[in-house]
Amino acid sequence: MDKRFAYTQSFLSLLACGLFLASANHARAEGILSDEYVNPGAYIVMGGVTGFSEFKDIPATFDTSLGFMLRGGYRIDSIFAIEAGGNFLSGWDTQADSPAPGSQGGLTLDGGTATVNALAYLPLGRFQPHLLVGLGGMWAQLRTTDSVVQLCGPDEFWFCQNVYRQLDHSGSFVMKFGAGLDAYITRDWALVIDAAYVLPFGDLEDLRYVSFNWGIRFNF
Partner of 43 at 20 to 30 A CA spacing, among 1, 61, 118, 137? Predict the structure, then answer.
């Protein structure tokens, strides 16, 4: 992995966060910010996620992946929040031939992350942009795209499940940084979008990707 690239990305994210907070303090001093839709306390976010691969040193082209995400956190004040969240991505597909004996079709990469995130908001009324930095863990598994067998039971007409051949799996430490926007419908409900660059280390260091999340937020 290019360590200089990782350090550069980390520095730029910290610099952006510093500039963001400086602009927030300036805006508050000018009386621009609004606390009308700021609701300190616990909240939950549920929705979907799309992963755009930025894989490095992998001799195959993978498509985008869809999944779901769940986050829960606490808004400390009008600017700062902390949260824990996770996402699952299923189906980064590639047409590379499977090395598994007797398998046909391509390969699929599934994975997910679990991170603790720090957020800095710019509370501009209904629309509140934010920056985020997260640390945590990531896992991934490589499997066949086509199932190798189908299991049904206890009755064939009740439930059937495809079984895939797992070729490899691993986990690693991960960090992410990005930005997003909360668009409030009411004081308690909001539409949420954000994008983050996900940077794994260790065994999964080549599996970098950009995650685009969308969902609904509820403030308790």
Answer: 137
- Rounded alpha-carbon distances, angstroms, from residue 86 to 160, 174, 202: 28, 12, 20
Report the chain's terminal Cα–Cα distance, integer Å.
42
Spatial separation of the C-alpha atoms in residues 177 and 141, rounded to whole Å: 23
Residue-wise pLDDT tens digits, 112-125: 999 999 999 999 98
H and E: helices and strands count for the chain: 1, 10
pTM: 0.74
DSSP run (H or E) holding 66: strand 65-75
The contacts of residue 76 (CB under 8 Å, 6+ apart) are: 40, 82
Q: What is the pLDDT of residue 107?
A: 79
Q: How far is CA 123 from CA 18, 179, 188, in A?
A: 16, 14, 14
Q: How far apart are CA 90 and CA 188, in angstroms?
A: 31
pLDDT of residue 82 exceeding 80, the answer is: yes
Q: Which residues contact 122 (CB under 8 A, 6 or more apart)?
A: 20, 23, 24, 27, 33, 79, 128, 129, 130
Report how far residue 93's alpha carbon sits from residue 108's, in angstroms, rounded to the nearest whole number: 4
For domain 3-96+108-139+166-219, the CATH class is mainly beta
* Residue length of the chain: 220
- Exposure string of 201-214, with b = 16+ CB inside 10 Å and e = fewer, is eeebbebbbbbbbb
CA–CA dist 196, 175 (Å, integer): 10
Q: Answer yes or no: are the C-beta atoms of 173 and 205 closer than 8 Å.
A: no
